[in-house]
Design goal:
Blueprint: E1 12-17, H1 26-39, E2 43-48, H2 54-63, E3 70-72, H3 78-87, E4 90-93, H4 102-108, E5 114-117, E6 132-135, H5 141-152, H6 156-172, H7 175-192, H8 198-236
Parallel strand pairs: 1-2, 1-4, 2-3, 4-5, 5-6
């Protein structure tokens, strides 16, 4: 995926994946990344996704004179999505409306550290200084840009440490760990309310099953992305 949009292996790639909607705070993100690109010549912004904010993001990058280095790819799936993650050096995320931050975990499953704002669903995944950098909610676009620059300035061992911690974070969200923890929590809740009305028990059980299904789907997705990246890396050797 990197080659068709003019990115070479030595370039630094800021990435984002997701629905491009106004509530994702993408005007802020685009301003921050464009500022970073203007100060780093061999850097690119790669975005996979589509939505109402796409045209505004494109307009902002064009006005900044960065149309050749801001790549809005549209919806990307399967092996091509694995290529997108494989091309990233850092995942940029500025949403203030997340509840679970699954896309952050998906990025980290491929060893991509993240920069994000200290919001619910983000702070649970991005561990400041370990698998990326977590900024205060009132951080300016300039401060966000500096956090991206901080990732780029890392030594090879320093960046490798962030990448390894990102993989470990993603692993902690796997079906074998997170789902089991959730199952145990809800099983205990059901047992504690054994004498409650049957409808209440059924509600707990339905919630439990829903969580099982949700994490099963996510685990399969994350594993598919990791497998695709591993296959691509192996074939490139």
């Amino acid at each position: 995926m990197a080659e068709p949009v003019g990115i070479v292996e030595t370039d630094f790639v800021v990435g984002h994946v997701g629905r491009l909607a106004p509530e994702k705070n993408l005007t802020y993100l685009t301003e921050a990344v464009c500022l970073f690109l203007s100060q780093n010549e061999r850097a690119h912004f790669m975005v996979a996704g589509d939505g109402a904010s796409a045209s505004e993001m494109r307009r902002m990058s064009d006005e900044a004179g960065l149309q050749g280095r801001c790549h809005l790819l549209g919806v990307v799936e399967g092996a091509e999505l694995a290529d997108v993650y494989d091309a990233m050096d850092v995942f940029a995320f500025s949403s203030r409306s997340e509840t679970q931050g699954l896309v952050l975990v998906e990025a980290m499953a491929t060893g991509v550290p993240a920069v994000g704002l200290d919001e619910p669903g983000v702070r649970e995944v991005v561990l400041n200084g370990k698998n990326g950098y977590l900024l205060s909610t009132d951080a300016s676009p300039s401060q966000f840009s500096k956090a991206l620059a901080r990732v780029r300035a890392l030594t090879v061992p320093g960046r490798a440490a962030l990448q390894e911690e990102a993989r470990l974070t993603a692993a902690s969200y796997s079906r074998s760990s997170t789902t089991q923890q959730t199952v145990e929590l809800y099983s205990h809740a059901i047992a504690s309310h054994a004498g409650a009305r049957a409808t209440r028990t059924r509600s707990f059980e339905a919630t439990l099953e829903g969580l099982k299904q949700e994490w099963r789907i996510f685990a399969n997705l994350a594993n598919a992305v990791k497998d695709a990246v591993a296959t691509r890396s192996g074939s490139a050797k």
